[in-house]
């Protein structure tokens, strides 16, 4: 029996029943990686010897009567997490030989839960791209079409899951870095509420691994089923023990509903600043139709929705003002000169990005205060709705584009070109206010590429979009293994 595409929940049941051992699961995963990853290039730092040792230890623990949430289950970890004895580079050549001394808090939680870490997954340079390629480890290809990206910055993790390289992975999300790769590769991901899961040790080399409150970034789970997301989130959730000095367990409120018919859902298929491609729009409609068919209350407009144009401007300001903190002085001064040369009438997102890169602290405080008003607006919306369904990016996975100047790249949306970074505005809907968002598969494009949508939920009510994801998986289906050969092909009907 082949186990590579089974869910973590199924593997845990099989391990408990004695139908398979962790050593067997781990050997099968390693054999698949060694066979198939030459063309995918998802696993950039293998750790097979220690994985086999951990698997033997898991089998011995089970033989002693132990049971833990992930005991014996093979997983992968995004390269940006510190793992003692393995390089953490964030794709930056100057840090190619950096070896952290201790595990990130989330890696420690994985191991404490019994997981077997197969290795680390590829990322873009500095985690700052919607693709996953760098000079150290090369390019990760989308398992559905090797000429396309799996997304970024957790692209290696999504590609690994879609290829059957482990049952679970952990990634991070600042600008859709969990959700976009899930959408591009046809898997599941969950961006937790800001601050829900400790981030210590998911830090750029060679910075010290300190407990910090990040402004927009979160760490979160990736999987091939919605239930597996919840399983892994329960392992990850909770504050940093160095900060609070307590156990990390955290009690999240239960999902608001257990049946699709009881959900109140707002569906958005467009954004005022960016077109939604036809393939993605069809995915949103597929989910909306399933909700209507199940008896859920579905609305497409509400006066409660915060202003999306202002929200995007705020997100752009908060995101890019933090992106230049470590820039050399000369580069920063060049940005100041360019920003000063902008016309006051230029209100494009490109201009907003450039102005934000040279924000003063006063500017940032003003943007942060306006964010709080938006958060309050979302609270009012979620008094009337349980979730918002909307796109993650405007298109399925796009072809590799390694132009060294990202500002010269373009994204093609149904034949119309837009600035490359404009595609971040949809992911920013949840990121800017810090809301939880679950990425789910929603079928395939006419070219056979995966299409996903996100389910945005109320702050610290992560179990509500996760439960909705689980119910929709039962209704419309979920992950499908990629077509062999690495070429997208037309399909007769959505998957």
UniProtKB/TrEMBL annotation:
<dbReference type="GO" id="GO:0004040">
    <property type="term" value="F:amidase activity"/>
</dbReference>
<dbReference type="GO" id="GO:0016740">
    <property type="term" value="F:transferase activity"/>
</dbReference>
<dbReference type="GO" id="GO:0012505">
    <property type="term" value="C:endomembrane system"/>
</dbReference>
<keyword id="KW-0808">Transferase</keyword>
<dbReference type="InterPro" id="IPR052739">
    <property type="entry name" value="FAAH2"/>
</dbReference>
<dbReference type="InterPro" id="IPR023631">
    <property type="entry name" value="Amidase_dom"/>
</dbReference>
<feature type="domain" description="Amidase">
    <location>
        <begin position="24"/>
        <end position="464"/>
    </location>
</feature>
<protein>
    <submittedName>
        <fullName>Amidase, Asp-tRNAAsn/Glu-tRNAGln amidotransferase A subunit</fullName>
        <ecNumber>3.5.1.4</ecNumber>
    </submittedName>
</protein>
<keyword id="KW-0378">Hydrolase</keyword>
<dbReference type="InterPro" id="IPR036928">
    <property type="entry name" value="AS_sf"/>
</dbReference>
<dbReference type="Pfam" id="PF01425">
    <property type="entry name" value="Amidase"/>
</dbReference>
<dbReference type="InterPro" id="IPR020556">
    <property type="entry name" value="Amidase_CS"/>
</dbReference>
């Amino acid at each position: 029996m082949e186990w590579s595409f089974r869910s973590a929940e199924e593997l845990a049941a099989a391990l408990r029943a004695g139908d398979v051992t962790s050593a067997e699961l781990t050997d099968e995963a390693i054999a698949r990686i060694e066979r198939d990853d030459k063309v995918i290039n998802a696993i950039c730092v293998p750790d097979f010897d220690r994985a086999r040792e951990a698997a033997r230890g898991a089998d011995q623990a089970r033989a002693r009567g132990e049971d833990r949430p992930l005991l014996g289950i093979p997983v992968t970890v995004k390269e940006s997490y510190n793992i003692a004895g393995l390089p953490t580079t964030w794709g930056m050549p100057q840090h190619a030989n950096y070896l952290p001394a201790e595990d990130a808090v989330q890696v420690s939680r994985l191991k404490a839960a019994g997981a077997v870490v197969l290795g680390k997954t590829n990322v873009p340079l500095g985690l700052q791209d919607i693709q996953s390629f760098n000079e150290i480890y090369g390019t990760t290809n989308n398992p559905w079409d090797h000429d396309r990206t799996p997304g970024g910055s957790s692209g290696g993790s999504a590609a690994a899951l879609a290829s059957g390289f482990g049952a679970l992975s952990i990634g991070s999300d600042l600008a859709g870095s969990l959700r976009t790769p899930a959408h591009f590769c046809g898997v599941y991901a969950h961006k937790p509420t800001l601050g829900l899961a400790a981030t210590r040790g998911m830090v750029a080399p060679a910075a010290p691994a300190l407990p910090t409150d990040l402004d927009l970034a979160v760490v979160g789970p990736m999987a091939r089923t919605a239930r597996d997301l919840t399983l892994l989130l329960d392992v990850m959730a909770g504050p940093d023990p160095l900060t609070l000095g307590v156990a990390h367990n955290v009690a999240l409120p239960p999902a608001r509903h257990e049946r699709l018919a009881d959900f109140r859902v707002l569906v958005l298929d467009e954004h005022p600043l960016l077109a939604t491609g036809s393939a993605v729009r069809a995915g949103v409609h597929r989910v909306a139709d399933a909700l209507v068919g199940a008896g859920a209350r579905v609305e497409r407009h509400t006066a409660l929705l915060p202003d999306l144009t202002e929200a995007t401007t705020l997100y752009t300001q908060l995101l890019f003002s933090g992106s230049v903190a470590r820039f050399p002085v000369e580069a920063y001064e060049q940005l100041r000169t360019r920003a000063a040369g902008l016309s006051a009438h230029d209100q494009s997102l490109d201009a907003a990005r450039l102005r934000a890169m040279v924000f003063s602290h006063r500017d940032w405080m003003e943007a942060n205060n306006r964010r709080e008003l938006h958060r309050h607006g979302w609270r009012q919306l979620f008094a009337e709705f349980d979730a918002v369904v909307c796109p993650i990016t405007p298109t399925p996975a796009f072809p590799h584009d390694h132009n060294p100047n990202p500002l010269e790249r373009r994204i093609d949306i149904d034949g119309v070109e837009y600035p490359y970074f404009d595609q971040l505005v949809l992911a920013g809907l949840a990121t800017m206010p810090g809301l939880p968002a679950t990425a789910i598969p929603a079928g395939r494009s006419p070219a056979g590429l995966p299409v996903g949508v996100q389910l945005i939920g109320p702050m610290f009510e992560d179990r509500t979009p996760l439960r909705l994801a689980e119910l929709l998986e039962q209704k419309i289906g979920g992950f499908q293994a990629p077509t062999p050969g690495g070429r997208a092909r037309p399909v007769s009907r959505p998957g």
